[in-house]
Design goal:
Chain lengths: 172, 425
């Protein structure tokens, strides 16, 4: 079998070489919620902490950014936002939402530790369209997939975005 | 018997000839050359019904523009399953799992999870309808054989994570009516049905909850297979005790071979055999083997990190260059891969402990599954080649690839018929 694989590799059917991943799923989750009654748009990102550290400081186990710890440096949010702004946006009715972190939390443990990042924005006008770009970590992993759940006025829709299809518009 | 993708097999036969030209494996019998063994394996693969019980491909179906009828390059897109590659790999049937990530366990969360699950199921049904010339929606065990005779791939539906059931037992029948034929009780976090093997907060119910027990009972009544993958060990024991029908682990491996909470102990494997159920081997590298150390890569990476300037002071150009430098190190010092040999090591162990009637294949493609040699659906025949290499007979391979799961599926339906008839009397 090993020889068969060698032949496959020679024929260009090889397994691609990628940056090492520290968890089996190259996945992130984004939930977007809007209810016209509250006129509030909330965006929650659930990201593997190792991916965040790898993406920002090139070390999955770095303690430098110490997210959600007492010693979290002032620059941590800024660096996180700088990274996210390169790979992620939400447009409401065609206008980009200014991302301001409301709060963050950690869940899970070890390589499965997740960093949750919560954003909120006032959205007084009726929401008729949502355009989401979510290409986070596609700079690290060619096969990164980012699930998006959108809940708008009681309607739920799901999407999967990745390097090939980083953005998509939903209408409501 | 329907003959699968004959235009593909000469390609692999050519590969076998090339291999034979390179070397002969030491464990090949004197009477059979490497290329003859490979050809024999491909012919067996062609004859047996091949069923993969777990793929998260419905996630691809909600990717805008993704077309299941087109062949995708896994090296470019990461996609592991589409209908052309199922045909290339000689994969006759697959369970597409509708997966909804665990979230808040309240009425709003449950309502949303149900909506998302139904959307995903609808995506599967729509895909099979749109491509009805090459695939068909399968609802019963024999549908796989019937569709194979028609030259079509069989698409079954499962649900990965019981979260979309919420706390409404009637949803189980709703999903059954939609075509769902197994439900994985729980995923990576505890839910209202059961405890997860990987929830960092630890167990909450001590296995399956009271409501989860009702769900198992309802699944038995309807003829939905109870899937214990992702559950903690107590979930497995509870499911064995509660279920009136055999259970499955749609994508789990053997813990004695690879220590991982998602894998099953020998005691569990023996109980699975007594139960009449089946463990479906998965192609997740971390469940297949302990990742060996890579000191050369680690040393080179440490040196690169030691010499880099603070990330906060880097320009975009510097970040891009550094990313490329790390990528080149990963290419220069790759981790030794999980291979099909690891897969069959697990099969060997399960056969030894539980018997040939209690093991199958559930690759978890598009959910993290995919290893060297079985990277996507087009390469699953390599499992058969390795099985033949190790001396498995066609009858045994037929059981591993589909016979066992179909038997369990039939048993589950038989129990459902009995329970329903008892309920009527």
């Amino acid at each position: 079998m090993y020889k068969l694989l060698c032949v496959l590799i020679l024929l260009g059917q090889s397994v691609p070489t990628v940056t090492t991943s520290y968890h089996p799923l190259r996945l992130s989750l984004c939930e977007i919620e809007y209810t016209s009654g509250k006129q509030l748009l909330s965006i929650n990102l659930k990201l593997f902490l190792t991916d965040v550290n790898e993406a920002i400081v090139f070390d999955p186990y770095s303690k430098e950014l110490a997210f959600c710890q007492p010693n979290e440096p002032a620059k941590a949010n800024q660096m996180l936002l700088e990274y996210l702004n390169r790979f992620f946006y939400v447009k409401v009715n065609g206008k980009v939402v200014d991302l301001k972190i409301k709060h963050k939390k950690l869940s899970g443990e070890g390589d499965n530790t997740a960093l949750w990042v919560y954003f909120e924005a006032q959205q007084p006008r009726p929401l008729t369209s949502l355009e989401i770009k979510n290409a986070v970590f596609t700079d690290l992993f060619f096969d990164q997939n980012n699930i998006v759940y959108a809940h708008v006025n009681g309607k739920s829709k799901s999407l999967m975005l990745n390097k090939k299809t980083p953005a998509h518009q939903l209408t409501f | 018997m329907f003959q699968k993708s004959r235009h593909i097999y000469p390609f692999f036969f050519l590969l076998a000839l090339l291999i034979g030209g390179c070397t002969a494996e030491s464990n090949t019998s004197e009477e059979e050359t490497e290329e003859e063994m490979t050809q024999r394996a491909l012919e067996i693969h062609d004859r047996v019904l091949t069923v993969d019980t777990h793929a998260d491909t419905p996630l691809r179906m909600i990717q805008p523009g993704f077309d299941m009828a087109e062949r995708h390059d896994p090296n470019e897109t990461g996609s592991k399953v589409d209908y052309p590659r199922m045909k290339e790999g000689g994969l006759d049937a697959i369970f597409f799992a509708a997966f909804v990530a665990q979230d808040i366990r309240d009425d709003d969360g449950n309502t949303r999870a149900k909506a998302l699950c139904l959307q995903m199921i609808d995506s599967i049904v729509a895909s099979t309808s749109k491509n009805s010339d090459i695939v068909g929606l399968a609802l019963n065990p024999d549908d796989a054989y019937a569709l194979e005779k028609d030259g079509k791939r069989a698409i079954y539906i499962g649900i990965e994570n019981g979260y979309p059931i919420g706390n409404d037992i009637s949803n189980v029948e709703l999903y059954f009516e939609k075509g769902v034929r197994y439900i994985t009780l729980v995923h990576s976090s505890n839910n209202d049905l059961a405890d997860s093997a990987t929830d960092s907060d630890g167990p909450e119910h001590g296995g399956i909850s009271e409501f989860g027990a009702d769900v198992v009972k309802e699944m038995n009544r309807l003829g939905i297979m109870v899937d214990v993958s992702h559950g903690n060990d107590s979930v497995f024991y509870d499911a064995i005790a509660l279920s009136k029908a055999p259970i499955i682990a749609s994508h789990s491996n053997a813990r004695a071979v690879t220590e991982h909470d998602r894998n099953m102990t020998d005691e569990m494997l023996k109980l699975m055999a007594e139960n009449g159920g089946v463990v479906q081997l998965t192609m997740l590298a971390t469940y297949l083997r302990d990742a060996p150390p890579n000191p050369a890569r680690d040393s080179a990476v440490a040196e690169l990190r030691a010499n880099m300037k603070p990330a906060s002071e880097m320009t975009d150009e510097e970040r891009t260059a550094l990313r490329q430098a790390f990528r080149e190190l990963s290419e220069k010092y790759p981790d030794p891969p999980a291979t099909v040999k690891h897969v069959v090591d697990h099969i060997d162990h399960i056969v030894k402990v539980a018997g040939i009637d209690h093991v199958g294949i559930g690759c978890d493609f598009d959910g993290g599954g995919g290893i060297q040699g079985v990277f996507d659906a087009s390469e699953v025949m390599n499992i058969t080649i390795e099985l033949v290499r190790r001396g498995y007979t066609e009858e045994q391979i037929q059981k591993i690839w589909g016979g066992n799961i179909i038997r369990v599926f039939k048993d589950v339906q038989a129990v459902a018929e009995k329970l329903q008839s008892e309920g009527l009397s």
